[in-house]
Design a protein that fits this description.
This protein is of the alpha/beta class. It has 2 domains: 6-120 and 351-356, Enolase-like, domain 1 (2-Layer Sandwich); 125-338, Alpha-Beta Barrel (TIM Barrel). It has 12 helices and 12 strands. Strands 4, 5, 6, 7, 8, 9, 10, 11 and 12 form a 9-stranded mixed β-sheet that branches. A 3-stranded antiparallel β-sheet has the order 1-2-3. α11 (300-306) links the parallel β10 and β11. The two termini are 38 Å apart. The protein binds magnesium ion. The site of magnesium ion (MG) has 5 residues, from loops.
Length: 360
Amino acid sequence: MSGIRIRKLHVRPLNFKLDRPLETAGGQIGSWPVVILDMHTDAGIVGVSFVGCFMPMLVKPVVSLLQDMGAMIEGDELSPVSIEAKLRAKSRLIGTQGPIAMAVAMIEISAWDALSKASNLPLCRLLGAKPRAHPVYLTIPAMTPSRVRELAQRALELQYAGVKCKLGHPDPSKDLALIDAVRSVCGPNFPIMVDYNQSLSVPDAIQRIQRLDDMGLGWIEEPTDAMNVEGHVKIANAVKTPVSLGENWHNPMEAARDILSGAADVVMPDVLTVGGISAWLKCAALAEIRGIPISAHSYPEISTQLLPLAATPHWLEHAEIFDSLFLNPVRPVNGNLIATEDPGCGVAWDEKVVARSAWT
Ligand SMILES: [Mg+2]
């Protein structure tokens, strides 16, 4: 594969209309700003990656950074680790979070995608693992029992192995009503994970989670501020339900901090936020050292390629948000997702959808 060189990055901002609006504490979300990246090489191979920008104001900076970083790596060899190291070295003084980190991770992922395609292998095979089936849950982006029931029904019909609910209602009994809504549809033994999205204080978290402790929940995600390591250690020591952290790690050092301090019982790094494919695999190594189950946050297409490389694989997450952007969105079979055998990281654009989602 050596000798292939990067020719150009093609960056496209999208205003992506969601098939199903998301229900959040802050109201309904009907569309999502997305930036997609095509890395063109001199071998004619194109590596791809994308990021869902949470806020429209992030789109311009991410696009501009990708274009400028593209100019910095034009003509470089298609070596994802070296490309990432070069871009990180140049941005070290600025830090490892925010739009710069998003752009570096997108470039790293698209380079791995191109390298896998050049090797005619799916990413997991390029890195030495066979595709394997891993259980997948559906994340339910809803805050009312009626909508949660509808989506729990959908999870059953589409053969998901579990669901994840968003909690953190000011009235804790309303949180219980959401869990009851899932149980009423899926039965008492269906795996349910819950996510507080960093919304609670430490004492509040301990009190509220202890009320849930006998419900057999799969895990409690980010009960308090993701940067509050001591707080999470206190919570993890005070409750029986496993505490899950990881989607807000910005590098493997933050993973080491939480894993080695006992702040997290289970972990779920996000391949984009943590810095890319190499960074995610470093987190998997840390999880292995402590015997901690590792799941993947979002990006199920890429994550099905990553979990087979982990020694302690746990769950895949699917929120179905960006599915219509892809030619072959992932679909559970008997509760599992399995990595595709197509060369690359598992993402191919539906160009018709891309064309009608152009950012204006
Ligand atoms: Mg979460």
